[in-house]
Amino acid sequence: MIQAVAPKIEKNYLNEKVGLLSWLLTTDHKRIAILYTFSITVFFFIGGFFALMMRLELLSPRNWLVSAETYNKLFTMHGIIMVWFFLIPSIPGTLGNFLIPMMVGAKDVAFPKLNLLSWYIFMLGGGVTVYALFRGGVDTGWTFYTPFSTTYSTTYVVAAAVGIFIAGFSTILTALNFIATIHSMRAPGLTWFKLPIFVWSMYANSVVLILNTPVLAITLVMLAVERIFTVGIFDPALGGDPVLFQHMFWFYSHPAVYTMVLPAMAVISEIVPAFSRKPLFGYKAVAFSSIAIAVVGFLVWGHHMFVAGESVYSALAFSFLSYCVAVPSAIKVFNWTATIHGGSVSWDTPMLYAIGFIGLFTIGGMTGLFLAALGLDVHVHDTYFVIAHFHYIMVGGSVMAFLGGVHYWWPKISGKMYPEGLARLSALIVFIGFNLTFFPQFVLGYLGMPRRYAAYPEEFQMLHVLSTAGATILGVGYVLPLCYLIWAWHYGRDATPNPWRATGLEWKSSSPPPTHNFEVTPIVTAKLPYDYEAMKEELELV
Amino acid sequence: MITNFRLWPESASSVAGGVDLLFLILLVVCTAVSVGIAAFLIYSAIRYHRKSPNELGTQTRYNIPAEVTWTVVPFIFFMAVFVWGAKLYFEIQRPPDNAMSIYVVGKQWMWKVQHLEGQREINEIHIPVGRPVKLIMTSEDVIHDFFVPAFRTKQDVLPDRYTTTWFEATTPGKYHLFCSQYCGTKHSGMIGWIYALTPVDYQRWLTQGAPEGSLASTGEKYFHQFGCANCHHFNNQGRCPDLRNLYMRPVLLTTGKTIIADDSYIREKLHDPDAQVPWGFSANVMPNFTGVVTEEQILALISYIKALGPQPGTQEPSSSGAAPAEYGTQKGIGGPGATSNAGSQVEKR
Ligand code: HEM
Ligand SMILES: [Cu+2]
Ligand SMILES: [Cu+2]
After folding, report:
1. Ligand 1: does its nearest atom lie under 6 Å from the Cβ of A377?
2. Per-residue pLDDT averaged across A142-164, rounded?
3. How confident is the model at residue B224 (pLDDT cuts 50, 70, 90)?
4. Among the three residues B177, B206, B235, which one is the final residue of a domain in this structure?
5. Segments making up each domain of chain A, as ranges
6. pLDDT tens profile A251-295
7. pLDDT at res. B3
8. Domain for residue B45, yes or no?
9. Staple partner for A388: which of A24, A168, A442, B301, CB 3.0–4.6 Å?
10. What count of other Cβ atoms lies within 10 Å of the Cβ of residue A230?
């Protein structure tokens, strides 16, 4: 306690240099992580604002708050911002940037300047997208289906596409940087099978991003070319094929949905062992399941097109492969659960988020089984069932994991502790709000409520009202951490280097770490990852 | 205020029960597994809750039999669901041979419906219960989607091609029709009703508000109006194929390939006449009708051509549109005569 209140005097990455320029020109991966944290938080709340407006509009079956035109722009901008400017960069840009070099015992990423460039490119892409939004928005849906997007929409489609196109380069560069770092900068003795699973998952994630983002880029270029120069690619009136667009989009986007969840799995795979004081159960199974997801994830895109005029035989193949890709996800769930069993389980906030994640991800994954069942998907495709399915994974899963990760590494990042009681309460509010928002949407979907409807028949109202009520609770659950984390940054209790007594290399550094992460390059002598047994004395565990 | 609140959708088609059954079974199994996992998680979190700050968990790292079990068992379960879902899908996707056809054209933001008997409807479709109905659909602009929750059927409606869906209503009633593919500003207004009528009511509906004539007879009018009849008549010296007995028959092409003269083939003739030229005829003869005929007119023309000849395998009452006099005597030339077993590429898979 006495040690905790003693003022810190040593230099760390936060206080070594001061001033705005020292941040804007930094090549320190930890400071870049903070820059990303700042940007994606802003984008999250912009996207969240759109969501709230949609939920309010849906309180009534008629258009009472906004027009249909505005509603269509709301869901489009919500999707675009949340997918490309929050979910995909969220964990990689923030926790990935901060932790990968530290976890491998390096001073920085392999290409620090490129890392800074990534952030600027990301901001440029975000800027262009926000420009499109203020000029009047886009109304195509985040999926940009043709020929609506190329020929019929009168909104700022090209501007939004350019914004996403630009942001894609940032994604590619960051992924490249991570891969290079993981390959070439590991501390002496840190072999592949001693790496924290976080690193494995982020590696798999980076490979996917490098392979799929160029496909999105070329698809958006083709879309823009058709829209600007009326070259027939997708619009049948010009001799194109509208379904071709869907193939290209989902060939990108199915892997993309996995790049929104692989980083979340990465975080959970760290929190669960740390708060159970136990090695991750089935380390190799979990590591290889990430690779399996990355590979098989590229082969299932057609499951988004079961009623789009796809031949029954390709539907058959895509359904089969979708079930195959569900297996590695199941493996992870079982291994996380087995890790908790027999551990020394703490109920600190990160663990609450992790347990919440496992539950919600399980529901999200299981409803994927419903959707991959061909005859069933015919009914629920493009209804609220699908909306609920992917929000369980991307919000119940990825956002929860992100929040869990932020709490877990907060002492390391900020050098301060967050207020535990308030944080637990917020986690509970998020969990309740989330379920109240999205569970009714499964019911709505099976009842036949189509997605992207600004107005709807009266019989759906009750469930929509429930969902909106949940959304307001969820909103509170998101604003609370924003407030107390900012508070904690200034006034929180000072953190010790390893407050959770976890095993990763990042905890061997001070909190917050010095600019070069480690006073001396760590040498890894442990034989296994998460080696509590060997570190018992060091961590004072019995 | 809030009316008709329900938690389970109406089910009114021959496939709805099968879909619901699969859904329910999955729901039961998945709920059981989820609850099991959640209970185990909560149990472990409580049972192994940290008792002292220095406590360490048991250091087990893996268990191969467990690993194999939770890989193989889910996989087997997934395969069972896969097979079941696929069987259901084939049932939902393949219309029975004796289905009656109705044509549907989607456009921003309405559904236009044409019955073979000549009735036209907008955002409403009247059908008889107990008879399979096959919809042949296309779009004039963007992609739409024809979704009837009570029937558990859904099919995207694409521009420039025909897609089909079918259903057999089992219970008379009024059911929602939704557009389920985002199609622009008034997407949520692109909704309508399906009226499933008893056979008696359906007959009464057919005779009410008597249309000017069957769809085929409207097609016949267009056949003359657009000048089709100028070439495709009995003594055209072999410049163009005879269209009698063409519908759903194999056509030998100049490429040596054989295809079935289905709706898509006939539609393509109007938009891109030289894409597939029948054996014995030359390209650059038939004019391109793009921008001249509308999708609805094409559908009428198709049903006229359909009426010109028998269609193998269907017991549909042939519509009242009769062949024009000049077709009465002339023998078929070229194309339609060629035979092959090749399946059509679009319609019947
Ligand atoms: C556990 C394995 C999973 C299976 C079997 C699965 C299956 C499916 C299927 C079949 C669809 C298409 C549904 C339709 O449009 O009718 C779908 C949609 C979707 N899934 Fe999954 N899914 C799984 C996991 C995930 C994960 C991990 C994510 C994201 C992190 C995800 C995100 C999405 C999204 C975003 C959509 C809808 C996209 C849109 O239409 O806008 N799914 N899923
Ligand atoms: Cu997918
Ligand atoms: Cu629509």
Report:
1. yes
2. 96
3. confident
4. B206
5. 26-508
6. 999 999 999 999 999 999 999 999 999 999 999 999 999 999 999
7. 57
8. no
9. A442
10. 12
Which of B20, B156, B268, B345 to substitute to test the interface with A, most A CBs within 10 Å?
B156
Q: What is the ipTM of this complex?
A: 0.93
Instruction: Give the whole-angstrom CA distance, residue B148 versus residue B192.
Output: 10
Chain A interface disruption, residue of B15, B27, B35, B48, most A CBs within 10 A: B48
Query: What is the per-residue pLDDT for B349?
Result: 30
Lookup: tokens for A414: 């900020």
Q: Note whether A373 contacts B63, CB cutoff 8 Å.
A: no
Q: Which atom of ligand 1 is nearest to the CA of A365?
A: 1
Is residue B320 domain-shared with residue B292, that is, in the same domain?
A: yes
The answer to whether the CB atoms of B86 and A319 lie below 8 A apart is yes
Q: How many domains does chain B contain in total? A: 2
Interchain proximity B85–A346, CB inside 8 Å: no
Query: Per residue in A10-36, pLDDT tens?
Result: 789 999 999 999 999 999 999 999 999
Of B118, B117, B139, nearest to B295 by C-alpha is: B139
A143 alpha carbon, closest ligand: 1
Token look-up 């990760």 returns: A405
Residues contacting residue B43 through CB under 8 Å, at least 6 positions apart: none
Residue B121 inside a domain? The answer is: yes
Is residue A260 within 6 Å of ligand 1 at its C-beta? yes
Q: Domain residues for B241?
A: 215-348
Which residue's CA is the nearest one to ligand 1's atom 7?
Answer: A368
Task: Give the DSSP letter string of A245-309.
Answer: HHHHHHHHHHHHHHHHHHHHHHHHHHHHHHHHTSPPTTHHHHHHHHHHHHHHGGG-GGGG-TTTT
Same structural domain, B260 and B242: yes
Query: What average pLDDT does this structure show over A209-230?
Result: 96
How many angstroms does the Cα of residue B108 sit away from the middle of ligand 3? 8
Alpha-carbon dihedral angle through residues A100, A106, A111, A114, given to the nearest 10 degrees:
50
Which among B281, B263, B259 is positioned nearest to B271, based on CA atoms?
A: B263
Q: Hey, what CATH topology would domain A26-508 get?
A: Cytochrome C Oxidase; Chain A (1.20.210)
Question: B185 and A451: CB-CB below 8 Å?
Answer: no
Q: Residue B146: beta bridge partners?
A: B155, B179
In a domain? residue B89: no
Report the pLDDT value the prediction gives residue A457, as an integer from 0 to 100. Answer: 95
Residue B227 or A6, more confident: B227
Convert the pLDDT of each residue in A389-403 to its tens digit: 999 999 999 999 999
- B107-162: pLDDT as tens digits: 999 999 999 998 999 999 999 999 999 999 999 999 999 999 999 999 999 999 99
Helix (H) or strand (E) holding A88: helix A88-91
Same domain, B173 and B245: no
pLDDT digits (tens, 9 = 90+) for B65-95: 999 999 999 999 999 999 999 999 999 999 9
Closest C-alpha to B309, from B236, B243, B233: B243
Q: Are residues B176 and B228 in the same domain?
A: no
| DSSP β-ladder status, B173-179 and B144-148 | antiparallel
pLDDT in tens, A106-121: 999 999 999 999 999 9
Q: How many helices (H) and strands (E) does chain A have?
A: 19, 0
Q: CATH code at B316?
A: 1.10.760.10
Phi and psi at residue A342, to the nearest 5°:
85, 5
Residue B113 lies in a domain: yes
Pairing status of strand B192-197 against strand B153-157: unpaired
